[in-house]
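Attaching the record inline, Q. Sequence:
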Amino acid sequence: MKDLYQLAISLICLLTGLKAPALAMKVSQPREVIVEKHNVTLQCKYNITGDKRGETFRVTIFKDKPGKRNEVCSGSFNTSMLPFESKGAVLCEIQPDEGSILIRFIGMNRSGWYFCHVEKMHPFPYTEDTGNGSWIFIKPDVIDRNPRRCPQVTHATLIVLGLVGILLLYSIIITYLHWPLGATACILGMKEAVDMKCELIHNFDEPATATWNGQRWETGPRQDNEKRPRGTEQ
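Structure, as predicted:
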């Protein structure tokens, strides 16, 4: 009797399992993503078939091909669908949603194939799938389609520039006019000093005097009658 009861339970479980649809996950992602800046956004969609809804998930991004060594970033989330950051080879901002995950790569500068791997961790049974990969191409040269315009020149700016130009021209004219006069005065002063020195040297045997006539210095022998030899007085 006991054996018949266990057999009946086993048949019921088998029929229930055959009636229930198989639990499976399908991950899809865009084939190509072309961007003009280093902040790249990749959207991965997932779909679970069956009567078991997931409560805890894990998403992992691989570069080139799925594998532990090629992991870019990863993170887990639950039904609260709160955004979070993940620090791996690249800093990622992950925004989960119902049936979709948005991954924003911060500072990515390498083009290549990127694969999205999604796992349903809880409740049992475990299921997972990997997308076919997205070719992310980062353009090397970014052309600014909205170039900045040069600031317009106002009337006040023109007036200030005009005054500065006039003052500069005035300074140049004054310098040009005073430079020859100053050079000439310097040369004449040097010439007087040389003439005076030559005259003193010429009359070195006689004591000399220098007198100021109001305009220049004049030199000549000292008029000293006591030192002149007798017989020379007139």
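The first strand starts at residue 24 and ends at 28. The radius of gyration is 51 Å.

More tomorrow.
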